[in-house]
Amino acid sequence: MASPTVHITGLAAASALGDTPAAHLAAINAGHSALRPLAHFPDAPLTTSPFQNLPAGWITDRKTWFRGRRYGAASNAAVHAARLAVSDAGWTPAQTASAWIFAGSSRANVGELLGAWPARRPISKFRASNSMHSEVAAAVSIELGIRGPWQMLANGCSASLDALGLAWMALRSGATQRALVLGVELPLCPVLLEGFTDTGLLATPPHLNDPFHPQTSGFFPGEAVAALALEVTPNLTGPEILWYGANSDAYDSIALPPDGSALAQLLAQAQTAITEPIVALCPHANGTPSNRLAESAALTTAFPTSPLSTHHLKPFTGHSLGASGALEVALLATAMRQNQLPPNLPNTHTPSPHFQAPAHPIPIAPGSVILKIAIGMGGHNAVLALRHSKPA
Known about the structure:
There is one protein chain. The chain is of the alpha/beta class and about 400 residues long. The chain contains twelve helices and 15 strands. The protein folds into two domains: about 5-230, Peroxisomal Thiolase, Chain A, domain 1 (3-Layer(aba) Sandwich), CATH 3.40.47.10; about 240-385, 3-Layer(aba) Sandwich (Peroxisomal Thiolase, Chain A, domain 1). About 30% of the residues lie in helices and about 20% in strands. The strands form three sheets. Strands 5-4-6-7-1-8-15-14-9-10-12 form an eleven-stranded mixed β-sheet, sandwiched between helices. It has a two-stranded antiparallel sheet with strand order 2-3. α10 links the parallel β9 (about 280) and β10 (about 310).
């Protein structure tokens, strides 16, 4: 018996670029980047810090997304996004209650532990160390009345793409008919930024916003939250999750192997498993020198002759770490709903003989597949395949 098709039926997203998926896509299509020096953002606690000139993505509507009656800021953002995605999918209360939850974040509510979110209500039971991450998924379950199991992943920058992959596996197995996937990250805490600086991961002047440029120096951090509702109910239309795979480099805790061999193998597996035409890819492309070497080598190895269309989204939003996979899939799915793929930000894609970098939205034909890549610190690679199907 054929495995069921997994559709993305509900979407929600917020970053510095917008507070809805449609607002994100409109900004991207207009060629607008959300990155600004941190000193330019209102209420930012970093305006007088060594990071005040670092371009970053700061969610400005902090009351709507971060404040709540008893949870941490990341948990409150996830709850708000979850409600929007469930509404977009049109789930009934009974359908919502039966869903499974998969959430991804590399740091979750660690901001409260570091004193970055002083508005949190001081309830001692939520200060327990094991709630820093798991509270995100638990809060969504509690506030939306979801009684299916929840899982919380902290796989670094691939966390929410892996959450999508595990949800896809659960749906395909028949274990559940619906899953809610979440990604959230609030990395703009001084202590976290200092850690990224110490490991050489943050962008340095002149702050080149071109992830594959030979002089790229690091990533631009960005806050983000995204939620996606997934279903296997028959006769659905819209973007589909077609395939997911993951592996590890077994190489280093921070650096990536320059030849990108494990990622190349994973991409080869995707090509073997997928019979539909792979027409485009959205790379991880976080802007670190290590990523530039490893990912560009892997892509060249896996696609030596195919002129794939390449779509970078981090130059628009910044790098939202563990939330980036869910955020970027949400934006790709939003574009697919409009029968298109998003453009690249002008002057942010180093020319390559193997990959095209469209400066304008391009049409996507039904059945076409785009690959989304995520790479987590410690050498974890994830690839998710999205297939376009026309709306009914």
